[in-house]
Amino acid sequence: MKVMVGDTVVITQQTGNPIGIVTRRSGTMLTVRLPLKGNTLERVSRADVEPLALWLADARRRQTKFSNTLSLVGQSSLSELVGVFGYSTDVKMQRTSLGSVVRQLERAGLDVNPTTGSWDRHAPFVLSLKKALIDPSPEEDDAQDSEPSQGFALPQPFWPSALGLSQDREVAFLRALTGAEPLLALLYLPERRETADWLQATWEGVMGWAYRSAQRFVWTGRGENGAPAVVRGSSHLLHGYLKPSLLDSEGPRLRDAPHALNLIALQRDREAPVDLSRLLAAWPGPIFEFDATAIAGGGVPVSQLLLMVGGKPALATEAVVSELSPLKLVLWSREASAQGAAQAMNSWGDLLTRTPLSRFKGSNESSTSLSLKARLAQWLLVRNPEASLQFEQHRIEVLDDEGDEQEVIRTDLHVEGQGTFEVETLVGSGPMESFYHRKIFSRRKPDEPFSLVVPGEALLWAGPFLADIAHHLGEGGSVLVPVAGAAFASLEARALVENASEVKDPEEAARLESPVEKSERRDDALPLLDDVAGYASVKERIRRDIVWPEQRGALLRNVSRASGILFFGPPGCGKSLLARAIAGELEQEVRLLSPSDLRGPYVGWGQRMIREQFDWVVEQEKRMLVLDELDAVARSRRSGDMHSDEKADVNELLVQLDRAGRLRRIIVGTTNFLGALDEAVIRSGRFGRFVPVPPPDLDEAVEIVTHYLSRLARAETAAADRVPSAVELKAILSPLFARNLVDQRFFSGSDLEAAVTESYLGCALGKAPSLEQSLGPVHLTVEALAAALERGPRSVSKRSIQRFLTETRRHCGASLADLLAGRFEAQTRAP
Fold first, then answer.
1. The AAA+ ATPase domain covers which part of the protein (predicted)?
2. Which of 184, 394, 459, 681 is within CB 3.0–4.6 Å of 463 for a Cys-Cys bond?
3. Could you tell me the pTM of the whole model?
């Protein structure tokens, strides 16, 4: 029994066996308060004390008298029991004292029951033994240490199906737990109160635990969204998601951002949303429905799995679990799993004295992995004291095309005669196909035993996959899971259902695919400033005036600043892209809103929708809003044809901007008509930082065209060696820019992209003999690109440039306006 702060212990190494109450723990040393010695404090070793609750449990187990002053079978009162544990027993005896004593006795395997049914201080009590569950006897532990691993099978059905999920959705659900998409899980509660009482809390506990464990498989908690979020609630959260809510930002909300799990328990007939089909269409991720209305048992498969996770597969029989509370098992298994993960490190010194180790720790191994390796080594030495353990054995497996070494694979543990042992915590190993191929079958040697060692927690979400791995390993392999004591048990093989498995044949894939996996950036990741082609001066201004101050918020916290950042300039010049790049640089979650997102079909809806969006941005840090085409929402209230509801929208926007500013959130606006905005919106303190975005000059245009050409070259149907060089592009663009000055019309960034697309499609159509035939590589010619640029549009007019320079002079100063004007002039003089 683990000794905790507040426990009463008996000091066995002192005369009279005095009792003390633990006030502090520091490693193996305890600080105890001695009530019978004037409450003096004394430091003693953990080895010199025993919990008093265990002494009472031993007396009850042997059915002997504990002492002459305390009866365990109904002749003593609760106050006398509390007094033996060193707590005050006066009339004002605190309920917490009795609660602490009862909890200690329960951890020792005893139930405390007052004979009168009342917990009055004078009420007599009886101690009764619980069924053995958590703490096995020392004899059982010692016997189990030396035995070979025993097999155990996953419960059938697995826990999601046992809690009402359709069995054909089970593998999809387990895969979704490791994904980034937001999940929505609905639990339809049964009418029977005795089932509903344990079902909802057990479902929420297992789901949340499995989700956080699964998220670590592919995602380590870093990124724009922080740690995985688990939201629990009832049906009102569904209604709040389907329609605009007037609740303030303090209220609970569904999380539809990545890496979020939403758990909703409801009665199907009384609380289900009116329009479930609309919910299915609106929710951005998968939805899983757990129909628990037909559950008749007491959650036997769930309890069996929790016993396996906690290290007690031998107890996972229907006869045992039918007497246990699934909810209590969730709490116990979490604690038992964590204690088991750290157990081996307590006897690490003993391992070092028993066998010499030249190397133990690999690169970037976590404490869980090291503990599993130490525990595995102890178990192997108990089974065979003469075993030779070779940790981190190097095996050169992969060669490149020239025959040189490409990757060195290290074996976690190799034991002569017993084969290879790979320890995997399943943290950062995903996706599942990669785990199969890279971590298992690419490391397995032919004709040699292979064992995969995983923590018990992995059974919660990866149990079917681990059983499938055992199936593919066959007789020469096994999947080992730590169990009680210092032993390991093997997971019985079970193949995934054919129509549910998306995992290819692992041995075939291991031969065909390289185990070296290239890390690629996600397509949906936010852009960085370096990902934006051209606009060098604008990007430098953003880094200096926006990114640098925001990244040093702790140093500049007392410096007042406006929350609003306003990008202005001619259309098609990348204002929205640059705004999103700010979110990428600051690693913030962002919403890009168009005017329709802030307007409603009825009077008053605009204010409500503006408030809803700002509620989202202020409810937690690392969030920002981008308001595209801001002039459509915040135009000047001086306009004579402006409706009163539109003026109310502007007023609401002003209030929300002040609110976001107080909380130091970032609000970015983009506009092509800065002069059309209401003066109160762009005053200092609201949108106080202005970023002019001009059309690209010649050098920037070359960079932009090169960017879009390179993107085409990376496609499977393009030829990378046909991308024109910067010199060729400059030769094409220079006369066009000179002519643009004469015509007073200029290229925008989107004009250049459109020209590249048009030239590429023209080359593709010219190559195809007919529209029905498929294309091979498309060779984009310099002549086609020059022709597309020649006849392409010039979206930026002279009037737009004059307005842009005037607005720059007014809001950013005459020096920057003159610099931009000179830049246009210099641009036109290019050869």
1. 561-697
2. 459
3. 0.48
